[in-house]
Design brief:
2 domains, Aspartate Aminotransferase, domain 2, globular, about 40% helix, 12 helices, alpha/beta, Aspartate Aminotransferase, domain 1, binds pyridoxal-5'-phosphate, about 20% strand, seven-stranded mixed sheet
Length: about 400
């Protein structure tokens, strides 16, 4: 097919839920890819943090295709090898005790919310169901996770929502404290608000919330959908904050390109769910879990150190670009605030010049592959610098 044919069919048959850029991917390898006209690009987006090791990583392709050739699916009524291997590796890297597999970030958060409510209600009674989330957070697109999301703009025209969510200001411990009551079952946070603009939480705030949760037996719930699986230079971002969450959700980079989400349970919650409480037909899908194993196998201390090194290069260079006001984030999850011009205009310009970048509100957002080479990084940053300069007003 040609790009024009693809665009035409998309217009006619695909629901218009995305404002698409003028681009279709034909194929890729690592941090490089090609469109239908043979134009080459460097990818700083990884499909929004999904392709942890870039396009068509050979180890990942081998693991996924070998599993697909054996069997793609069997019900969760039976045991499977890729699922148990992925769960073991997640527990070893996170320090959590057990894992439930679903298919996406929103679904992982749904599982996390259900588990928190069950833990609190069975221990303290039916009235303990509220979950405090942070203003400017993002937790997904289902009715319940939209309710958990602390952004009013996401709430227009979709009510009534699942009740029981209370919003507090990020990095304002007194505000969190003022929202805590006998009804509070959990406090749910992203360590770095990703969609909200790549804004890391303050360590002191996170530590205080963790201590409060411990004192009151409120569950500390961490959404690592975007920050997890090596993205921030840690296996999971909460490890940088020195806390031990009671429940964690993750997705995106975990599958390396296939749909998978996971809820991780700590000591308090590992036995909260019993047979019949929760499930998913496609959850723990063997092909997706084989992909996850290939990703998790590559996550080690050397890789994390390399992510931190590349992160430092981006921070140092981007902070000096003309028209850049600030650089935020951690590891290879980076937000660039502009002095003038829009992040959307930068993304369009970058695409024209052969670089794929993302936006998060008014920030340019970078989520490059964890294994991007120094050369690819340099080339991409040079394009980005030019684009940011050109949008200045
Ligand atoms: C922190 C966070 N939570 C949840 C989600 C929802 O994940 P999914 O789109 O896989 O449902 C996202 C997606 O961007 C996210 O960044």
């Amino acid at each position: 097919m040609t790009f024009a044919e693809i665009k035409e069919l998309d217009q006619q048959y695909v629901a218009h839920t995305y404002g698409r850029f003028d681009f279709a991917l034909k194929c890729g390898s690592g941090a490089e890819c090609e469109d239908y006209d043979g134009k080459k690009y460097i990818d700083f987006s990884t499909g929004i943090g999904v392709n942890a090791f870039g396009f068509a990583d050979p180890d990942w392709v081998k693991a996924v295709s070998e599993q697909a050739a054996k069997f793609a699916h069997i019900s969760n009524l039976y045991y499977t090898e890729p699922g148990v291997k992925a769960a073991k590796m997640i527990c070893e890297k996170s320090g959590m005790k057990k894992v439930f597999f679903g298919n996406s970030g929103a679904e992982a958060n749904e599982g996390m919310i259900k588990a928190a409510r069950k833990y609190a209600q069975t221990k303290y009674g039916k009235e303990r169901y509220e979950i405090i989330t942070l203003i400017n957070s993002f937790h997904g697109r289902t009715i319940t996770t939209v309710a958990a999301t602390g952004q009013d703009s996401m709430h227009v025209n979709f009510d009534p929502f699942t009740p029981g969510f209370v919003y507090a200001k990020a990095n304002d411990f007194e505000d969190v404290l003022s929202k805590v009551s006998d009804k509070t079952a959990g406090i749910m946070m992203e360590m770095i608000q990703g969609e909200g603009g790549v804004i890391p939480l303050d360590k002191e705030f996170v530590e205080k919330v963790a201590a409060l949760c411990k004192e009151k037996d409120i569950l500390l719930m961490v959404d690592e959908v975007q920050t997890g699986n090596g993205r921030t230079g840690y296996y999971y971002a909460y490890q940088a904050f020195g806390i031990e969450p009671d429940i964690v959700s993750t997705a995106k980079g975990l599958g390396g390109g296939l749909p998978i989400g996971a809820v991780m349970f700590g000591e308090k919650t590992e036995n909260t769910f019993v047979p019949g409480d929760h499930g998913s037909t496609f959850g723990m899908n063997p092909v997706c879990c084989a992909g996850a194993c290939a990703v998790l196998q590559k996550l080690d201390e050397a890789l994390l150190a390399d992510v931190k090194k590349k992160s430092a290069v981006i921070f140092e260079k981007a902070a000096k670009f003309e028209n850049v006001a600030s650089v935020t984030g951690m590891g290879l999850m980076i937000g660039i605030e502009l002095k003038s011009g829009t992040s959307k205009a930068v993304a369009i310009k970058c695409l024209e010049k052969g670089l794929i970048v993302l936006t998060a509100h008014e920030k340019v957002r970078l989520l490059p592959p964890l294994n991007i080479t120094e050369d690819q990084l340099e080339k991409g940053l040079a394009i980005l610098e030019e684009a940011i300069k050109e949008v200045a007003e």
